[in-house]
Amino acid sequence: MIEIKNLHANIEGKEILKGLNLKVNAGEVHAIMGPNGAGKSTLASILAGREEYEITEGEVTFEGSDLLELSTEERAHLGLFLAFQYPVEIPGVSNVNFLRTAINEIRDAKGEDPISAKDFMAMVREKSKIVELDSSLASRSVNEGFSGGEKKRNEIFQMAMLNPKLAVLDETDSGLDIDALRIVAKGVNTLKSADNATIVITHYQRLLDYIVPDFVHVLHDGRIVKTGSKELALELEEKGYDWIKEETQVG
Amino acid sequence: MAQYTENELAKDLDNQDYKFGFVTDVETDKIPEGLNEDIIRIISSKKNEPSWLLEYRLKSFEIWKNMAEPNWAHVKYNKPDFQKITYFAAPKQSKKYESWDDVDPEMKETMAKLGISLEEQKKLTGVAVDFVMDSVSVATSFKSKLKELGIIFCSFSEAVQEYPELVKEHMGTVVPNTDNFYAALNSAVFTDGSFCYIPKGVRCPMELSTYFRINAGGTGQFERTLVIADEGSYVSYLEGCTAPQRDENQLHAAVVELKAMNDAEIKYSTVQNWYPGDENGIGGVFNFVTKRGICETNAKISWTQVETGSAVTWKYPSCILKGDGAIGEFYSVAVTNNYQQADTGTKMIHLGKRTKSTIISKGISAGNSENSYRGLVQIQKNAHGARNFSQCDSLLMTDHCGAHTFPYIECKNPSAQIEHEATTSKIGEDQLFYCKQRGISEEKAISLIVNGYCKEVLNQLPMEFAVEAQKLLAISLEGSVG
Predict the structure, then answer these.
(1) Which of B5, B433, B454 is facing A101, going by the closest CB pair?
(2) pTM
(3) pLDDT at B15
């Protein structure tokens, strides 16, 4: 699915990623954890194609393509989806119109015809149930006036509608109460299949009670310094990140 | 909206330059350039006008000579040389068009290029169209059908000949020839335009539409529009404008007068797409227009405008809310790109009790352009319980364009309620990135965001016009984020 090799990246001259390696196969869920400033959100931004970052070294292969050579929208056409930590408001543009435009752009890139209005509306009804999203939210402006929880559920709703190969969830649990967290996690689990993969970026172990990862990686100082099973997350919850930092320094 | 963004935008963007920049090769009957009494007499006699109208013109000319060109607007341009303009240019024709079949094929082709195939429109949309090229109205469709209802919809010159008493009674009562420099000039030299009268209690069954086109070089266009909605009647009126691409600045100084009698309603929509000049600011139309309406008791006038064209725009469609319970509305989207300058807004003059006005203005600035909203809300002494709501938003596409808001509020009645909201925002890199991450290209993302931003105004437009306006917005702003 995706393979990241020795990735180095700067922003405004400051090196954030310092040789990151990660391989994710179809059907897998990977969790990336780490302290503040470790580079977690930077990784998500670079995968999605934010332009502020300068890649100095390394390569990323996604579905057989050189990801770093592709524009943001081309990556999306190939099936990369980012659930934003801070979903953006677009006043006056209905969620439905936004998603229909997105779906048709993706279909167009694949040489497919636009989706019919009937199929589209049926899909909206079906997928909004997954995240228990009130159907009135679908016709409201994108994220405008949504509560924090609604915004995050809307991200997962969009993910369900776009049906990506690789979903990167950037701190999707931040700001969620326990009920919203459960709904979001249920959505992610429902969408999981043998053909897609998920990278869950999170600060806390809490989310991983609901979305059970196959692998847990610890990102520290721009590198993945430790990889383990879901038990590693529990250990981190209990002991914090300091022992990892020490271990890394010793290493 | 959804349908449009999906199917048509890409196609339209292939043709993103000013696509109305062609010149139609029809013979033109032009008079010598310059302005003096003799020229005015020539115009008047060419149009076979009654003597009262010639006198009105000559008086307006006297008034104009003693006026100075206004310079309070936030625009900079080289003042036109009024002696270098040709004040009358008409497509040469020996007789008046009695029917569509008589129209010059070249002219028909022009209309087709402008997307106004009258024949198609006759069949499909039920819009009655009056087409004004240079100074003369060349075709009015649907006239006979409207006549059955007592509705008069014709060129202004025709109205002068056929309904002189109506013209004489109402012309200049909303915008007097003493009003301002350009209105005085228009009153002296206006050549044609549209006239519309809706009788008492009649609801006009179709949109009435006028299409204005400047074709001949070195000419000014000074059209005059007068719409009278008699008691309890309703009309929706559309106005579209284009001009060829020329290096010189062409002057367009129109006067539009609306009269809504007791309980009448006039909805007046404009999509203004005069040639804006090239990307270095060379050429383009100077659009100096006076538009105003009077609302009698419980009457309503609603102005909706989408302004994407012209090098310089100076335009304030206004409402005088004279009668008790009268309502005035102003919905505006003004887009400026490259070196365009727009100073536009409205005046709402509240005279009657419980009069209400709403102002929604959306400015979009790109390139090196300057975009200003200028508005006046005036509540007079007797306007008990008057209310106004104004919202003026500005959207910046680049770092080197300007957006300005000049709201003036004068309130002489303490029972009035006035609300004013204003915002300025820059089109967000975050919004664009969010759209792109979902697979939406930058062009489409801009179109989505801008159309979303303008939605409240676009929703006011009749359907066909709204689609046209959305395309225009996308084309005007193509590649403009920076």
Answers:
(1) B5
(2) 0.77
(3) 39
